[in-house]
Amino acid sequence: MSAIALRRRTLPGFGLTMGLTLTWLSVIILIPLAGLFLKSLELSPEQFWAILSSRRTLNALRVSFGLAFAAACVNLVMGSIIVWALVRYRFPGRRIFDAIVDVPFALPTAVAGVALSSLFAEKGWLGAPLAALGIKVAFTPVGIFVAMIFIGIPFVVRTVQPVLQDLDPEIEEAAGSLGASRWQTIVRVILPSLAPALLTGLALAFARAVGEYGSIIFIAGNLPNVSEIAPLLIVIRLSEFRYADATAIAVVMLVVSFVIIFAVNRLQRWAQDRIPMH
Amino acid sequence: MTMQIADNVSLSSPDAKSRAHAAAARNNLRTEPRAVRLVIITLAIAFLSVFVVLPLVVVFAQALSKGILAYFAALAEPEALAAIKLTLVVAAISVSLNLVFGLVAAWAVAKFEFPGKTFLITLIDLPFSVSPVISGLVFVLLFGAQGYFGGWLRDHDIQILFAVPGIALATTFVTFPFVARALIPLMQEQGTQEEEAATSLGASGLQTFFRVTLPNIKWGVLYGVLLCNARAMGEFGAVSVVSGHIRGETNTMPLLVEILYNEYQFVAAFAIASLLAMLALITLIAKTILERHLDEGQDVNDH
Amino acid sequence: MTIEVKNLVKKFGSFKALDGVDLKVDDGELLALLGPSGSGKTTLLRIIAGLDWPDSGEVSFNGEDALAQGARERHVGFVFQHYALFRHMSVFENVAFGLRVQPRAVRKDEATIRARVKELLDLVQLDWLADRYPSQLSGGQRQRIALARALAIEPRILLLDEPFGALDAKVRKELRKWLRSLHHEINVTSIFVTHDQEEALEVANRVVVMDKGRIEQIGSPDDVYETPATAFVHGFIGESIELPVHVEGDVVRLGDRPLALKAEGLASGASKLFVRRHDMLVGPPGSGAFEGAVQHVRNFGPVQRAEVALSGGQTIEIDAPRDRELRAGDTVGLAPRRFRIFAG
């Protein structure tokens, strides 16, 4: 009997394509990332801790994570409003606004950075009126916050939009016919259905904002301990040849992003189990 | 009380009116009062205008602030031309590498069953969740003077960091998932029936791929390449870490934007930025068109 | 071409799709694999085609080991359940595909390919659709194009997976006749999978009844209908009355009532009695093995279908000719013209 043939696959090329995929994945992604973790292992736990607990590092991490979370929350609220308007209402320019949501995805971050910086500078189109009100945006933490909102908005919109679109209209009609007010229907029926997508959008926007560099550094002012983000501190440490410091900060950020993707994956699976596809 | 109102309506109005009321009531189940609708639409438009439209407009306004001649003069600078050229070269390298990888990986993942498939897809997605700065840093740690291969590279006189190979590598890293991610779901949805049919009709693996699979996924391939290219040309953080900012040599367009901006050459900075912004807009338009093609492809699939 | 399958086993995880299947197919046969979904019939077909691989067992064509070859080398025409037509190719190109991908050394020239495709399209009576695309065809048309495409490579064997499954009832009936006459014309060893007994009995020379990865019976359509080999086959093919009985020596009991049935050579113990609905003859009370009260009568063309509550408590449905009208409330005697008893 032909024992080799027994384990055969119908379509050809599995061994070849799988081998190439794993090789290429290792060369471009896995080995470089492993190098980072290996490098961090050269540090003793005390050194590692000393780097992370230095005032400047702690402040940079606080600025990145804190503002990213605040921006993601704003994106959650504004993103929901935008999704609702785009999916449920008809208004002139709706399709254009729908397409425009993707601009922060497509616009190179450096371009977004100089544009936001120029817009919110003291003499800029928005900076001037805000300055008249006594609000300074550019070169302050508020600037970082604004840039993070800019880059995060498509994540919330594009995760929630398809879910709201596919929501069965009958569940709302059922709620209404059972006597629920519109507000009750939204809070008790629609929002729970959207919850996994909303959380996913929040997590994605947060993860992106934490790691963001290009669109922030122009508007941030980059004052150590005040408006210096963690990615910038990595770049600064690299330019000072303090590789250990750069590596330690990078590892912390990387671990946090991996935890976030893991959580998002679980969230997606949970949502699929809870609300099975038709 | 409800009864009373109902009675009043039926007494005071003819049938047509009560039918209209019933229709209105049904509509009301799925929408909000007019005032609420207006507020929501206004908020959405205002937010998108301030945070998305205005930054886009300001790029072009600043670029043209000294007139069209200054704009073109800025673009004709040798430094600008060098940056444009380098950007095109780097994008061509990393897009073609990722195109080949994307096709190969999508074939392996979508057409076969094997344990650990979900994990493999997560690994392919990894670069999406790595900060661009870290994407550059990992290559500095590998190929930099103090890096793992730094000594060996110096002995053999090979320059990776602060040169085109390093920039291309970092760009390939950040754009790694685009083509594969565009193709995997598409090919999974299309299944393996057509490929099986081709095989049973005697087609070889390559014949099956080029005559049956590729024509079915061509819009998906284009879609992935488009997004991959946009990111490759616009990448800033990762490239900034590995480039070394050597003027006229290792500056891509986004890096040149930064340098010119920091030197207060606003017209020049925004002129380059406007090219990148146009790339983004063209990408978005092409993406919208391609998405329509992809939807149509699925409709045909449904029969 | 003869096909021989020996002791085929195929598992998907812990599910046994094929559990030791043996089958011989003679040259020029038109064989039906009949069974409920999950019975393993499609898996068997795909293994013969080389689209799936067994965990153990043998498949040979004309005595040659077929498992040594991939789907590509086997020269088997396979018609997929959902046709798997190439969406981006015209009907003509779909049919021509198998000819165009042949190795250069044996590939026919363009004129020959065109002539051959035209011939095949004529054969399936769809030459006028040559320039259309699959999405522009009806289900029945796609089915026939898929068949023409499979025939283009001059297959040694033709395999069809639920060939009429996705079609509506009327088209299905037309295509059945057409497939039988086509098989007569081309005379290629053919196997088709179906879950529709009527289809299997009407089209095939021989029927293989499968359940849970095993073959229950192989025989002519008459055999499987008239002399079912197992309880499953009796229950699956044709409409049967099934009653739980107890056999002791040559006495058959329903509940504690002995039935006036001759039971010879049966194993004692709990058994199942099968009678075709139309084999239950209606007579005056006390005349047959059973007695019961008619509950409900409906007319179906030439027969009347009556629901009868047996005195033992069970309710059965019988089909009686309409020459003697039954009425709800009648008490009747029932005598099975033919019956079978299976142990278990």
Automatic annotation (TrEMBL), chain A:
How does the entry describe its membrane topology? Multi-pass membrane protein
Query: Which InterPro entries does the UniProt entry name for this protein?
Result: CysT_permease (IPR011865), MetI-like (IPR000515), MetI-like_sf (IPR035906), Sulph_transpt2 (IPR005667)
Enumerate the SUPFAM superfamilies for this protein: MetI-like
**What are the alphabetically sorted keywords of the record?**
Membrane, Sulfate transport, Transmembrane, Transmembrane helix, Transport
The record ties this protein, via Pfam families, to: BPD_transp_1
The residues covered by the ABC transmembrane type-1 domain are 61-264
Transmembrane helix found in the keyword field:
yes
Instruction: Name the family the entry cites.
Output: Belongs to the binding-protein-dependent transport system permease family. CysTW subfamily.
Query: PANTHER family, alphabetically?
Result: SULFATE TRANSPORT SYSTEM PERMEASE PROTEIN (PTHR30406), SULFATE TRANSPORT SYSTEM PERMEASE PROTEIN CYST (PTHR30406:SF8)
How this chain assembles, per its entry, is: The complex is composed of two ATP-binding proteins (CysA), two transmembrane proteins (CysT and CysW) and a solute-binding protein (CysP).
Q: What does this protein do?
A: Part of the ABC transporter complex CysAWTP (TC 3.A.1.6.1) involved in sulfate/thiosulfate import. Probably responsible for the translocation of the substrate across the membrane. Part of the ABC transporter complex (TC 3.A.1.6.1) involved in sulfate/thiosulfate import.
Name this polypeptide is given: Sulfate transport system permease protein CysT
Species per Swiss-Prot/TrEMBL record: Bradyrhizobium campsiandrae
UniProtKB/TrEMBL annotation, chain B:
Q: How does it sit in the membrane?
A: Multi-pass membrane protein
Q: Which InterPro entries match?
A: CysW_permease (IPR011866), MetI-like (IPR000515), MetI-like_sf (IPR035906), Sulph_transpt2 (IPR005667)
TM helices/strands, residue ranges: 35-61, 81-107, 119-146, 158-180, 266-286
Entry-linked PROSITE patterns? ABC_TM1
Q: Which UniProt keywords apply?
A: Membrane, Sulfate transport, Transmembrane, Transmembrane helix, Transport
According to its UniProt record, where is this protein located?
Cell membrane
Pfam families per the record?
BPD_transp_1
Q: What does the record give as the function of this protein?
A: Part of the ABC transporter complex CysAWTP (TC 3.A.1.6.1) involved in sulfate/thiosulfate import. Probably responsible for the translocation of the substrate across the membrane.
| Subunit structure, interactors included | The complex is composed of two ATP-binding proteins (CysA), two transmembrane proteins (CysT and CysW) and a solute-binding protein (CysP).
Q: What is this protein called?
A: Sulfate ABC transporter permease subunit CysW
TrEMBL record, chain C:
**Gene3D superfamilies tied to this protein:** P-loop containing nucleotide triphosphate hydrolases
Going by the entry's taxonomy, the superkingdom of the source organism is recorded as Bacteria
Known SMART domains for this protein? Answer: AAA
Could you tell me which residue ranges the ABC transporter domain spans?
Answer: 3-237
**Which Pfam families does the entry mention?**
ABC_tran, TOBE_3
GO MF, one term, reads: ATP binding
> Which residues are the signal sequence here?
none
**Which keywords describe this protein according to UniProt?**
ATP-binding, Cell membrane, Membrane, Nucleotide-binding, Sulfate transport, Translocase, Transport
**Residue stretches in coiled coil:** none
- Per the similarity annotation, which family is this? Belongs to the ABC transporter superfamily.
Task: State its role.
Answer: Involved in beta-(1-->2)glucan export. Transmembrane domains (TMD) form a pore in the inner membrane and the ATP-binding domain (NBD) is responsible for energy generation.
What NCBIfam families does the database record attribute to this sequence?
3a0106s01
> What is this protein identified as?
Sulfate ABC transporter ATP-binding protein
Organism equals Bradyrhizobium campsiandrae
Starting at the broadest rank, the lineage of the source organism is: Bacteria, Pseudomonadati, Pseudomonadota, Alphaproteobacteria, Hyphomicrobiales
